[in-house]
Each structure stands twice: as structure tokens, then as C-alpha cells.
Amino acid sequence: MLGSSLLGRLRRRDPGDAILRRAARLTLVASVVFYSCRYGVGSAVLATYGLFGTIAAGSFAQLPGPAPQRARILVTSLPAVWALIVAGSLLAWSTWAAAGGMLVVGFVVAFAGVGNPRLVGLASAFQLFYILASFPPYQPGTVPERLGGVTLGIVLLAAAEAFLWPDPVPVSYRQRLAEAADGVAAFLDAAADGLTEPQADPGGRDTRRERASELIAAIELGRNPPEWAPSAAGARDRALRICAAALREVFAEAVRLAADTPSEPIPDLAAARLLRVCADTTRATGRVLSPGAPTVQLGDLDAAIGRAEVAYPEGEGDGRDAPDVPRLCRDATALAVADQARIFAVGVRVATGSRLEGEDAYSGLFEYARHSPWRLYWWQFRAHLAPRSAHLHSSVRLAVALAIARVAAGLLQLTHGFWVLLATLTVLRTSAADTRTALRPAVLGTIAGAIVSGGLMLVVDQPIIYAVVLPITLMLAFGVGRLLGPVWQQALFTVLLTGVFAQLNAEGWRLAEARLVDVLLGVVIGVLVGVAMWPRGAGHDLRLNATRYLAASADAVEQTIRAVLGAAPPPDRALDRVRQRMILVDSSYCQYHSERHGPHHRQVNWDAVLSAGHHVVPGAESLLRRNPPGCLAGWPAAADLLRDSAGQLRSAYDLAGEVAHGRASAPLPVPTGCAGELDRIRPLLSEGNPRSVRHLVEVDRWLASLADSLARIRPR
After folding, report:
1. Integral membrane bound transporter domain location, by residue (predicted)?
2. Helices 510-532 and 418-427, packing angle to 10 deg
């Protein structure tokens, strides 16, 4: 009964047996490598590096994608692994040289994640390769054996990943984005039906809206694992982020349009026709994200946008009557939907590797796609070399902690100083709260494992026994221990390590004692550094970066309004500042979701905060393409109205920044319908020519949609 209960518990914690399959692959490869090197070839160096290379790549490396992709990443990472081992081996002659190398390697390896967050999955493994090689004995002549052992372990592990009990392929971000596109397209069709047949199937429209909302929520970066989220600096990941933002805006504008459904059907409505074309384009574009699908041609959408723009300024009358305010509002909102749908389609082209056409009217949003990956990475690195970069803080913290641990292990002449740095790497987190959380299982598990392994070594002193049980301890440490919890994992890992070193260098029960002392020292160093250096973690950086991000967004909005009024040049610099601060707030946001937050911690709807900023840049660029700078110059009444609206919006952005920083909880703007928003400008519409009226309607509608996005920011 006890065994059945334990087995049931493990299965509940590991649906699909993914962890157990991974542990089985690791166990098989590690056992084959260790046995063949230690007992076949008779080389302790080959066995040590082969075993720890397998463990580092198979357990500490968190790699995304299906099995062939993970195998390819492992093999292509070998040159970097060789460089780290060579550097560690050459610097092992001096404690201070090794510690200096640890400081540099620790920072560079951790900070490399800003260029491609998928490298974060390899960071811990890369750190371990340098750490292992940087300890005495100083034997440069053994470098070929060290490299041979690591290469053997990684190559065999890559082969096992590809061919041995492969894991089922998880749902990728592109698949989620394609599903969201299909759901949004279905809602666009329903919104179009609501304009032409408002009384037909209102429940079906509500169902489609709820379904689309769920699918849109699933593509938020924070709801996807960091190794799967498109947060790299490369052109394709950046395009996917723009696609997600555009799809959110398509849905938000469609919801606004559906909320202003006319009371009577209007069979020939330009907005409905345009929405249906947007739905077809969005649905077809989502399918392009699947392998082998053809590229979507945008001719139909461009033609529909052109027809809507031609018909829009005049309305249905002859231009002498007062404009139809609800009609103007619906047409303006439908054009905004079409703009974002086209941005989504062009973004998918970039994300799937297609080249942009030179005459593409929207390619300015994707200008980065014309630059080399190295230039994009450099821009990303440069953006993160800032005092408020969460990546910079965590990289410096980790490098300093590992360097201090290396100095302590060297000065104290610890026989197994490697364990000190491994404990520091295991305990240290991005916030003091997370470090404290990792402290207890590390200490308790190590004590329990040391007691068990020390007792075994007092009773059993034959290395052959530990050789026989090696596969069992491997499976327990990386399979069962991971499922049972951190304390069990640390305890079983301690038993595994003492059993391995008992075969390499018999020291008896003192090996368990050394393991306990080394781990406790590493834990102390990790805790002290975690408390001393940026202890509040990414949450503090996120609040500060979000406040500055919203302030920059408010500046960009004011500059855009001044530009359309002819009082200032285009807001290119202001929009660039928003993009730069967007990089930092995105980074802080991703790291924030990896941290632990207590129930008393005041949460903020960060998805809404980021969406409010994402709404500004593409929205302003789309607005200025159809409403060029100076288009409302010479209309004083409109200028006064828009300046007043921009001032109110500026106050709302400031208040949203206070909410994000945790200093205020006052109510933000209440969402309003589009037609209701235009009621206040109705007295002005007869004063301007039709094209000026169109510009005023679009600019005011954009400001109203920005206010709606701010209204979604609420403390949780």
C-alpha cells in the first residue's frame, strides 16, 4: 500500500512521465560514460568530466523545443564548453586567478541571456564546466582528457535526447499565437455580423468574445516558460512580440466596436465589410505560423483599406449635412483594426523568415529585420547596460557570489571546493526572499544526505558496491528526488555525489563530512550576497522601469498630438525612448515571474501595464501614417480639445505609474464607448472640411483607446 501510494503521488506530480523519462535518459548515459571511462579506460579524469558533463547538460541545462532541437543545441554548445574548461584549467594555478576568471565568466555567461534568453537555459551548465575545471590539481596536461570526457557525455546525451524515449512536443508559442489568431478572427466575424444583424445570436457573439479573450491571455509572455517565450533580441522573436501586441490590439478595438453595435441593422456598412476582410486575413495569417503553410498575400486587405479610406471622409451623404458621428466612429475603429491586422500579417512574415518587400508601407515597424543578428544583439546588450536592468543586477550578483566562494574554497584549501560553488549556485536567487526559500531545503537535504551517506561509508568500504548502485542513485536523485521535493532532491544528490567520489578517491566517512561543510559554506556565501546586493529582486526593478516606461509613453502621446496639430516635428525620438524602456521593462517582467511572491505582496496587473505601453508605439505610428503631422493645424477649437484630452491622459499615465509603483490605488479612467467619446467633439465637426473631420475623429478615437488600455491597470 505504501509503494502504491508513493507511485500514485509521483504520477500525479509528473503527468506524462516527462521527468522520469528525462531521468532515465540521464541515468543510462551517465552510467555508460562513467563505467566505460573509469573501469574500461581506467581514467579518473575522463570519468569525472564525462559524468559531470552529462549531469550538467542533462539536469542543470533547461532547453526549449522538441527533442531534435535540444540535441542540436547540446552539440552546437560544445565549442563554448571546451573554451570554459580550457580557461578554468589554465587559471587553476592560483586561487586569485581562478576567482578572477570566475568573476568574468560568471558575469558574461549570465549576462549573455539578454541577447538570447534561451542561453539562460545553458547558463548554469556553462558555469559548472568552468567551476569544475578551475580547482586544483593544476594539470594542464590533462586538458585533452577533460575535453574528451565532456564531449563523450554531451554527444551521447544528445543522441539519447533525439532517439531514446523522446518527450512529447509541448505546445509552442507559435501554436498559441495561431490559436489566438483563429479565435480573434472568429470574433471579428461575429462583430461584423453584429453591425449588420444586431439582433441575431448575441449569445454566440459573447461566447466568441470570451473564447478569444482566453486565447489572447495565453500568449502573454508571463504565461509562457522563459525558454519558450519569444523574448530574444533576434528578428524573429521581436516579430513575434509585435505580432502578439498587434493581435491584442485587434481584439481590443473589435471589443470597442462591438460595444457600439447599432440598434437597427445597417446592411451596407463599410466597417462590417472591412472587419470581414480583417477576419479572413487574420485567420489565414495564423495558419502561416504552421510549418509548410504559404505566405499570405495582403492584396485583398490593402484594397479593402483603400476603399474604406476613400469612403470614410464623406460618409453616406453628400458632405453638406452634419457628419454621422456613430458612423465616423465605427469606420475609424474598423480602420484601426485593419491597421493592426496588417501589422500582424507583416510580423508573421518576418517571424517565419520571409523577406520584406521594399515598397511595404508598414515595414518601418520592422526596420530591425533588415539588420544583422549581431547588430540586434549589440543593441540589446547596450540597452541592458543600465542601472535599472534586472539582468545586469542578477548577473553581477551571481558573478560576485561565485568569485567569493572560489576565494573562500581556495584559501581554506578545501579538498572538494567545487561543492562550495555548486551550493552557492543552487541557493542564490534573484531576490533575498527566493534565496531564503531555497536555503532550508539545501541545508536540511544536505544534512540528511550526509548522515545517510556517512553511515553507509562506515558500513561499506568497497568501491565496487557503490559502482553497482550508481544507476539507482542517479535515478533517485534526478527522477524521484525531483518529484518528491527540494529536500529529497538535495539529500539524494548528496548520496549520489559521495557514492561517485567513493569510487574516484576513497576517503571513507570523511567524504560525507566534507560535503556537509562545503555545502554549508556555499549556502552562507549565497545568502550573504543575496541579502547584500539588490535583495528586492526584479520586483523592485520592474516597478521603477514600469513607472519610467509609462512616463515615456505619456511623453510620446503628447508629442504625437503636438505633431498632428503642427506644433512639433514627428515624435521619432520620443517613440525611440519608449522602445528602449520597453526592453528593460520586458526583461524585468520576465524575471519577476520566475520569483516567489508571498500572499501579502501587493500584486499589479503587469500584463495590462505592458499592454498600455505597447499600445502607444504601433498606435502612434499607424495614426501618423494616415494623419500626417500638421493635418489639424489651423483649427484652434480642435487644438484646444486635443490638448485638454492629452493633458488628462498624461495625468492618467502618471496615476498608472503610481499604481505600478505600489504607491496609489485611485481609480483610473473608466472605459467609454467610442460614440460616447465623440459626443463631446460633435459641436466642432461642422467647422472643418471632411478630411479634417476624419483626422480629428481618428486622433480622438486613439486617445480614447489609450485611456481604455489604462483603465485595465488595477492592483490585484
Report:
1. 407-529
2. 40
Cα 328 to the center of its chain, rounded Å = 39
81 by DSSP, 3-state: which?
Answer: helix
Alpha carbon 67 to its chain's center: 21
Contact 469, 496 (CB under 8 A): no
Average pLDDT in the chain: 78
Give the Cα separation of 307 and 363 in Å (integer): 21
Answer yes or no: are the C-beta atoms of 197 and 103 closer than 8 Å: no
With CA atoms as reference, report the closest residue to 408 among 546, 282, 267, 529.
529
Give the percent of the chain with pLDDT over 70: 79
Half-sphere exposure of 406 (CA within 13 A, CB side): 32
Among 538, 530, 349, 519, residue whose Cα is nearest residue 450: 519
User: Of 68, 40, 39, 38, nearest to 52 (Cα)?
Assistant: 38
Find, among 284, 259, 95, the residue nearest to 182 by Cα.
284
Backbone angles phi, psi at 22, to 5 degrees: -65, -40
User: Rounded to whole angstroms, what are the CA distances from 700 to 100, 328, 663?
Assistant: 58, 12, 30
- Please give the torsion angle defined by the CA atoms of residues 278, 284, 285 and 291, in that order, rounded to the nearest 10 degrees: 170
> What pLDDT score was predicted for residue 277?
92
Q: What is the mean pLDDT of residues 28-42?
A: 88
Pairwise CA distance, residues 287 & 338, whole Å: 18
More confident residue, 165 or 80: 80
In single-letter form, the type of residue at position 10 comes to: L
Specify the residue for cell string 528602449: 580
d(CA 674, CA 672): 6
What is the DSSP annotation of 508-548?
A: TTHHHHHHHHHHHHHHHHHHHHHHHS-TTHHHHHHHHHHHH
- 513: its cell numbers: 563530512
- Count of positions (residues) in the chain: 716
CB contact at 8 A, 20 and 14: yes
| Secondary structure, 3-state, 153-186 | HHHHHHHHHHHCCCCCCCCCHHHHHHHHHHHHHH
Distance CA(124)–CA(109), nearest Å, equals 9
CA gap 47, 128 in Å, rounded: 16
pTM, two decimal places: 0.77
Q: Spell out the residues 6+ positions from residue 148 whose beta carbon is closer than 8 angstroms to its own.
A: 46, 49
For residue 420, which amino acid is it? V
Question: What is the mean predicted confidence (pLDDT) over 438-444?
Answer: 70
- For the chain, how many helices (H) and strands (E)? 30, 0
Instruction: Give yes or no for residue 216 having a pLDDT over 60.
Output: yes
| Pairwise CA distance, residues 159 & 274, whole Å | 52
Count CB-CB contacts under 10 A for residue 650.
16
C-alpha cell at 431: 531576490
How many C-beta atoms lie closer than 10 Å to residue 453's C-beta?
27
Spatial distance between the Cα atoms of 405 and 398, rounded to a whole number of angstroms: 11
**Which of 544, 535, 616 is CA-nearest to residue 584?**
544
Q: What percent of the chain has pLDDT over 90?
A: 9
Whether 493 contacts 477, CB under 8 Å? yes
